[in-house]
Structure formats: C-alpha cells, structure tokens
Write a structure and sequence with these properties.
The protein is of the alpha+beta class and 394 residues long. Helix content is 41%, strand content 19%.
C-alpha cells in the first residue's frame, strides 16, 4: 500500500503542532486509489506493507488521528535513496528521486499557487488537492519499484542494511510520537538563576577589559582582547533635527564607526588564524591602515583557549570567559532553547518531540534535531521527567 497524507502547514506541517489538522489521506493498493477527507480514525492499515516518502511523517499523522496500524512493515523511499546513494545526500526529495529515475515530477500548482501564496492546505480546492495527492502516490510507487529493482540486482549488498533501517524507523517513530516530558517552568527558573550568575561574571570581565566596548558573543571582539587587535563599534552622533516628514522635530543622527586598539594578553597558537570579509562600512579602516583585508582574528573556542600559554591575569580572564560561555550554552541552548521549542511548534505543554533522523550523517549514525535530543548536559536532563509514578518498581 502506497501512503501519503496532506495536512495544514503550521510549523511545516509538524504532526505534533496542535494548530495543525489532517486534510486528506491517500492510499493506493494494486493500482486502486482511495482518498479520504473525513473520518480519518476509521483508516485501517493493520498488517500492511506501507510505502511512503519520509513515511515516518505520515505514520505520525494517521496515529494522531486514531487510525489503526498494528503489525505494519514499511518501505521509506527517502531512506532507501539515502542508502542507495552512499548516504551522501541528506533528505533526498521525492522530486529528486523522480528526476533521477526519469519519471514525471510532482504537481507544482499546489506549492506555487497556494502554499507559496500563503493559502493553507484546508483552503485548497478539493479537486486540485486530490490530483496533487494522486500524483504523489503514483510517483512514490514508481520510485519504490525502481529502488526495489536496484536492491534485487546491482545493490543486493545494501538490502539487509535497508531492511534493518526500516525496522529501526518504526522504533524511532514510536519514540518521536511519545516525545520527552520536559518541565518547562522549572527549566526557565533555572535559566533565570544562570542569568544572574552571568551578570556577575560579565561585571568582572568588564573591569578587566576597561572602557573598551565589546561583545561576549563576538569571536572577533574576544580575539582582539585576548590576542590583540582592533574592535570596531557602531555609534551615532547628532547632526540636527528632522524638518519635514513623520519625524519632524526629532533629532537626526549620523552613523559612525569607532575603532579601539587592544594590546592583547597572550600570543595566539600557530595555525589558529581565521578570516572574515570586510564590510563596505569597514573599508574606511582598511584605507587608514587600521584593518587588513580580509580581516584576521584568532580562534577563541574552548579547545584552543585551553592550549594557549597564559599567565595569571590572562588565565583568569580566559577562565571567566569560558565559564560565561558554558552558562550561556546551558541557559540559551538547552533550558531556554528547549522550552522555546514547545511554544514555537505549538506542542502540548511540557512535551518535546525531537526529530530522530536517519538520512543525515554519512556514517549512517542517528542524528537528532529540533531540538537535538541526543545532546544534553546533566543539568538539562534533570528537567526531563518520567511519565510514570516513580514509586513503582519493576
């Protein structure tokens, strides 16, 4: 059975976005196409061999609608193409597969005339959406048959690997659907505590830097402070008032750039130079001999800074800077970042649904995104909670 669904497009159709809804389900079996536009919970794919492109997405949707799907097997044409092409092309598209095998491409009208103009799926005329879905079903079947031929002839050696990945896909779908319980309120409270710690560190760093303005998020600024160099900061000076228009009577400003020379604290390690383009506004400093073209700075990542030879004051500055960065990573990327995903994707409260990707890493390993559920520090993990009563013991 070839399977494909059409849904509304909030968060790119994320199946866990509570604002989204199913619009249409297409099934094709033995050449017969069935289109469903309501009563999605009555869909039954029990004991079926399902074929789809990025089929995990479709499985999430039919499961969200309450459809029955026991004891299924799957063939994901996207995953098959990823393996057939040496795991080098991330997330192969259906159009890309159709073009490769010489089949007609997807119907463009839905994307160009509706989605591209901000018209959501549930507002597309049924006949147009139906034709679009039928074309996708047909195209998916064509790609499936072409891939099946390859796995049975020239790429026999890859078929056991692909079959294993398809079994994995069902497990990953279960994991994504259930998600991770994440205590957002407690995580945000902890993030607020970390912000206070960062303010204290920033104040100490400011004392050590002096009157030179700088940004802790700018590698160029930090490089100049640690290794020596120039910091450029945009400023404004008043040049009069507006005499006409909506801003009449308000002060007019001219944008200027100020340069600040830093002596540096340590000698940079060999082969740690980095370069960046000079902007048009910064060309003035090239002409004055203050900057080189391209602009050179040195790496300030944790691994590099651990290796530099720094005396007491310099090492203290570097240690404070690295401590600030670690707190920012924990606060911004995890505690706040993970919490923000819940609101951004309109997920149910205190629940994360990280994507588990099989079609990304050339090594074939699993990756995770939005957010990266594979990579969390111990503090963040404290806010990942069990669904089960912790008094129960097996």
């Amino acid at each position: 059975m070839i399977l494909d669904i059409e849904c509304t497009t909030s968060s790119k159709g994320n199946p866990f976005d509570l604002m989204n809804k199913m619009v249409m389900i297409g099934q094709m079996e033995d050449g017969k196409v069935t289109i469903t536009t309501d009563k999605f919970n009555e869909i039954n794919v029990d004991n079926e061999f399902l074929v789809g492109h990025n089929i995990k997405f479709d499985l999430h949707w039919i499961r969200r609608c309450g459809a029955s799907m026991e004891n299924i097997q799957v063939w994901d044409t996207q995953l098959a193409e990823f393996i057939l092409t040496g795991q080098e092309k991330r997330f192969p598209s259906l159009d890309g597969c159709l073009e490769k095998y010489g089949f007609p491409l997807k119907l463009d009208v839905v994307k160009t005339e509706y989605w591209g103009k901000g018209i959501d799926t549930d507002a597309i005329p049924t006949d147009i959406l139906t034709e679009y879905l039928k074309r996708d079903l047909s195209g998916t079947e064509q790609v499936y048959l072409a891939q099946k031929q390859l796995f049975e002839t020239t790429h026999k050696h890859l078929k056991p690997l692909f079959k294993l990945h398809c079994q994995d896909l069902l497990v990953l779908a279960e994991m994504e659907y259930n998600g991770i319980m994440f205590n957002e309120a407690s995580a945000r409270d902890k993030a607020a505590d970390l912000s206070e710690q960062q303010l204290v560190i920033k104040e100490e760093l400011d004392v050590r830097v002096g009157s030179i303005p700088y940004s802790l998020s700018s590698d160029i600024d930090i490089s100049a402070i640690i290794y020596g160099g120039v910091i450029l900061k945009e400023g404004r000076i008043p040049i009069g008032v507006f005499k006409t228009g909506n801003k009449i009577g308000q002060t007019r400003y001219k944008v200027i750039y100020n340069s600040y020379e830093c002596d540096g604290m340590v000698t940079p390690l060999k082969n740690t130079e980095s370069h960046t383009k000079i902007s048009q506004k910064e060309m003035l400093f090239v002409e004055k001999g203050i900057l080189t073209k391209p602009r050179t700075y040195w790496k300030v990542d944790e691994k590099t800074l651990k290796k530099v030879k720094a005396k007491k004051a310099a090492r203290q500055f570097i240690d404070l800077f690295q401590k600030y960065n670690k707190l920012e990573k924990l606060r911004g990327t995890y505690l706040i970042g993970w919490s923000d995903f819940i609101g951004k994707f309109n997920w149910e409260r205190d629940t994360l649904h990280p994507q588990l990707n099989q079609c990304v890493a050339i090594t074939g390993r699993l990756s995770s995104s939005q957010p990266n559920g594979q990579n969390a520090d111990p503090i963040t993990k404290r806010y990942c909670e069990s669904r089960y009563d912790n008094t129960i013991r097996c």
